Amino acid sequence: MKGGELFQLTGKVALVTGAARGIGQSIAISLAEAGAEVFAIDRIDCSETVRQIEALGKKGRAEKLDLAEMDREKALEVISTGVTYFGGIDILVNNAGIIRRAPALEFSTQDWEEVLDINLSSAFYLSQAAARHFIENKKRGKIINVASVLSFQGGLQVSSYAASKGGLLGLTRALANEWASLGINVNAIAPGYFKTEVTAGIRSDPQRSKAVLERIPAGRWGEPDDVKGPVVFLASAAAEYLHGAVIPIDGGWLAR
């Protein structure tokens, strides 16, 4: 395969969670731009994402689903729906995530459990179901988890988010260890401080926003489209020998 062809996803089908807006929407569109058809899932309406995918001449499907309720059986149903509609699944991107902020001494049970359910448990169940599909159909598969710079750091007043993203990085490596020999690549990206809903609280606080911006060597907040290249790479044949890796997309934040 020639160099330029390594990054082509024509004929592939991707399932992207949290695809309605922000980073998830950019991921879904980038995969379609590279040639893939896309199954977009979110707890809110994904129709705009699918509209943009179809405008590229690619097949898309939107499904509204609360990932906080994901379990093994529901994950199998999601994969089955994608297989029925598209004929198969080749790429899974576990992007869906939420954040709750409060001092650890005051953190509620609901805020702890909902964040872990969406950010970590749903990623495991969908990865398990996708891997079963890959193996049963004797096909290579790509699983890409969206971790965070807080997979490496603790943050402030975001104990459940930091725990979930640290767990997601560990899960990425654990699944890569088990599934690499089966032709399944499990890797992750770790976005830094991006202009998304997750960072709205920080960006609206002049002092915190200034402190964050001053630490980023690139001198700016990340934009959702900054993840496009790394995700297409991980989803493509160019990353066939990459297993259990995490790519920080943080403007140099972790290097500082």
CATH topology call: Rossmann fold
Number of strands: 7
CATH homologous superfamily grouping: NAD(P)-binding Rossmann-like Domain
Query: Approximately what portion of the residues adopt beta-strand conformation?
Result: 5-15%
Order of helices and strands: EHEHEHEHEHEHHHE
> What number of structural domains do the residues give?
1
Spatially, the strands of the biggest sheet line up as 3-2-1-4-5-6-7
Shape: globular
Structural category: alpha/beta
Q: Helix amount, in percent?
A: 40-55%
CATH architecture: 3-Layer(aba) Sandwich
Stretches where pLDDT is under 50 for at least 5 consecutive residues are: none
Count of alpha and pi helical runs: 8
Return Rg in Å: 17 Å
Write up this protein.
It is a single chain. By secondary structure, the protein is of the alpha/beta class. It has a single domain, classed as 3-Layer(aba) Sandwich (Rossmann fold), CATH 3.40.50. Helices cover 42% and strands 15% of the residues. It contains 8 helices and 7 strands. It has helices spanning 22-33, 47-55, 72-86, 109-136, 159-179, 200-203, 206-215, 228-235; strands at residues 13-17, 37-42, 60-64, 91-94, 141-146, 184-191, 246-249. It has a 7-stranded parallel sheet, sandwiched between helices. β4, α4 and β5 form a beta-alpha-beta unit. The longest helix is centred in the middle third of the chain and has 28 residues, at 109-136. 46% of the residues are buried. The model has no long low-confidence stretch (mean pLDDT 96).
